[in-house]
Specification:
The structure is a single chain. The chain is α/β, with parallel strands linked by helices. Helix content is 19%, strand content 40%. The chain is built from 2 helices and 8 strands; from the N terminus they run βββαβββαββ. The strands form 2 sheets. Strands 1, 2, 3, 6, 7 and 8 form a 6-stranded mixed sheet that branches. It has a two-stranded antiparallel sheet with strand order 4-5. Helix 1 packs parallel to helix 2. The mean pLDDT is 96.
């Protein structure tokens, strides 16, 4: 499981030209599910992300988590994070979990992280347009 985490002032998902979900201060999480990932991986990653101290405190030090700042998360499935680009110029995505399993673990991840922080999400497999205002910028890649 791989996640690209971006600290944002706001982020939204539009599907078929209609606003689907939106957050203000918090984290945009692009989530890729690999073959062999498990519910335990989703739990460990969501625990880590929810407690990751990447928000500024009163001294402008990154000492606060998304929980501490009463932020939200927007989770978007993204199989292209699993791209293998070693051969040629066309990446393959063979490391990705099969769609049914990837969707199940994506939903499980969203459900688990929602225990800690308000959670919005995209729609698995949909053609989504993502808008965000990156704060910092702070962008971190976590892999489990």
């Amino acid at each position: 499981m791989i996640a690209v985490i971006q600290r944002v002032k706001n982020a939204s998902v539009t599907i078929d030209e209609a606003l689907h979900s939106k957050i203000d201060n918090g984290l945009l999480i692009l989530l890729g599910v690999k073959e062999g990932d498990s519910e335990r991986d989703a739990e460990l990653l969501s625990n880590k992300i929810s407690k990751l101290r990447i928000f500024s405190d009163e001294n402008d030090k990154m000492n606060l988590s998304v929980i501490d700042v009463s932020g939200s998360v927007l989770v978007v499935s993204n199989f292209t994070l699993l791209a293998n680009y070693k051969k040629g110029n066309r990446p393959d995505y063979m490391n990705g979990a099969k769609p049914d399993e990837a969707n199940r673990l994506y939903e499980y991840f969203c459900s688990h992280i929602s225990q800690f922080v308000p959670t919005e999400k995209g729609i698995f497999g949909a053609d989504m347009k993502i808008e965000l205002l990156n704060d910092g910028p702070v962008t971190i890649i976590l892999e489990k």
